[in-house]
Amino acid sequence: MAETVSTRLEVRWGECDPAGIVYHPSFIDWFSVARMHFLAEHGIQYMREFHDTGITIVVTDVACKYILPLRAEEHIEIVAKLVECSRTRLHFEYDVLKSDGSLSARGSTRHAFVKHGVIQPVNLQKASPELWTRIASLPTLARA
Amino acid sequence: MAETVSTRLEVRWGECDPAGIVYHPSFIDWFSVARMHFLAEHGIQYMREFHDTGITIVVTDVACKYILPLRAEEHIEIVAKLVECSRTRLHFEYDVLKSDGSLSARGSTRHAFVKHGVIQPVNLQKASPELWTRIASLPTLARA
Amino acid sequence: MAETVSTRLEVRWGECDPAGIVYHPSFIDWFSVARMHFLAEHGIQYMREFHDTGITIVVTDVACKYILPLRAEEHIEIVAKLVECSRTRLHFEYDVLKSDGSLSARGSTRHAFVKHGVIQPVNLQKASPELWTRIASLPTLARA
Amino acid sequence: MAETVSTRLEVRWGECDPAGIVYHPSFIDWFSVARMHFLAEHGIQYMREFHDTGITIVVTDVACKYILPLRAEEHIEIVAKLVECSRTRLHFEYDVLKSDGSLSARGSTRHAFVKHGVIQPVNLQKASPELWTRIASLPTLARA
User: Fold this and answer.
1) Residue B68 needs a FRET pair 20 to 30 A away by CA distance; which of B4, C142, D76, D79 works?
2) Is B91 in contact with B135 (CB distance < 8 Å)?
3) Do B27 and B96 contact (CB within 8 A), yes or no?
């Protein structure tokens, strides 16, 4: 399976701010879109397989470095990869590319598996062995 | 002048996600609210003194660590401080506190001064000596 | 009890668009803030009394007329009133006022009571007699 | 040219609320996406041809009726059509369809042409005869 998954989007007017460029938190929102797309491309529909079964993948850390601004109607590509994966944690990285391939932003998110309503980390292998098998089979650079 | 500025908000329904908690990019949006409030409390109205004069404070880096989730209608406090300030850059840090004083999240943003429409860093002292004088007088921990 | 409830907000940078004014869906979001504040001022905390008990007040219709644009850092007031209230439906109206009292926008929302996860209208009096008693005691212009 | 333009989107996690369904202002945001796509499909890139030339198409009225809720990862289609077009005003209508073709929501937006920074209605034919020629050639049901 592919180690990176690309998501193509067109920048929305509502994602931009009075400076005429994309408002920086919009990139963090795009990381969610790209991450769910990464999982879906590997056969894991987040809503059905996580949300509906009572397990949430919460974000514990986010970081983003902004390099080239974007404006509405630009076509962009978000390249997501899973850099680390354990029974309790995930770590993704993202490159946001402009249509000419230049780098607009680079970011990362770290995650924990938690139970709905509790927000207490769980060991996914114990909480849902079947889901863990599928997460463990995702292509990644490091595995704990 | 105060070295930290507190902004009190009530979490909005629309800032939360299907997990029932605040969607993580909302915190990054709150940092903007807190930062503009920090400047306003020190006599700098961002819209009038920066935006309207053609100088934008863009975000070059953002980071946030999420510790305790929040949900709609919670009363929170965002404590902002300027940790570094130079002719070309700013660096803010933020603590998001729950109503009981516990830490919900901690983050930071780094900024450059740019000219509208160009998005090319400028030396604020050269671009607007008057604005630089005011920025340079902000309370901060480090000054380059 | 007051027939109208005022909510005071400061326009956020992230609520504005590249035209330099508030992006129009932000007003619809403010209506939610004002509506939950209206209920809270009358002793009904939406999260605890509706959301946590499995009853959702969904929006079935929204309308807004935009009159004067707003920009970031403006201080506004949203005046909400409940114009109609029945066992199955609510109807709110909102005025968004600028700091000089002039009308920026006027809108309305219509709602139904539904059960979580089902999204099927319920008769609130049957679903939760206690909640119905409290809703029925809200000040309103019309009651069905 | 086509009288309706379809825009296909996948519902984003961040567009949903704690009720587990799309937060209602997100539909209003989608109308903007669909409207800009309608114009682009007819050869009018909004950013280049309106925004950059100092003319804004502001929203003066919005309305939406919500019929079937949506949740994250659903594939939807927004069908936009221009129902009225004059030298000073535009009027669009939108149907939001679920993947099985059922109607999730139906809405409309009304617009005026204004000059940047002034927010005063202009006669597009006088302000920009060339842009007016192109707008006047859009397929529509009524023309004033």
Assistant:
1) B4
2) no
3) yes
The CATH number of the domain covering residues in D4-139: 3.10.129.10
On whether any CB of chain C is under 8 Å from the CB of D71, the answer is no
Q: What is the pLDDT of residue A86?
A: 93
Q: Is the dihedral of CA C115, C121, C123, C124 positive or negative?
A: positive
User: Per DSSP, which regions of chain B are E strands?
Assistant: 4-10, 55-66, 75-85, 89-97, 103-115, 142-143
CA C83 distance to own-chain centroid: 11
ipTM of the complex: 0.93
Is C51 in contact with B72 (Cβ distance < 8 A)? Answer: yes
Rounded Cα–Cα distance for residues C101 and C91 (Å) = 24
Q: Is the dihedral of CA A7, A13, A15, A16 positive or negative?
A: positive
Q: In this structure, which CATH number among 3.30.1330.60, 3.40.50.300, 3.10.129.10, 3.40.250.10 belongs to the domain C4-143?
A: 3.10.129.10
Cα–Cα distance list, D69 to C59, D20, D31, D38, D72 (Å): 10, 9, 16, 24, 11
Q: What is the pLDDT of residues C84-129, one digit of tens each?
A: 999 999 999 999 999 999 999 999 999 999 987 666 889 999 988 9
Of C64, C69, C116, the CB nearest to D119: C69
Name which of C47, C74, C78 to mutate to probe chain B: the one with the most chain B Cβ atoms within 10 A of its Cβ: C47
Phi, psi angle pair for C19, to nearest 5°: -75, -5
Tell me the residue type at B120.
Answer: Q
**Are residues C18 and A18, on separate chains, in Cβ contact within 8 Å?**
yes
Angle of CA points A18, A24, A25, to nearest 5°: 115
Inspect the interface and report whether the beta carbons of A64 and B61 lie closer than 8 Å: yes
Burial D28-38 (b: 16+ CB within 10 A, else e): bbbbbbbbbbb
Structure tokens at B83: 């940790």
Closest CA to D90 of D116, D121, D54, D117: D121
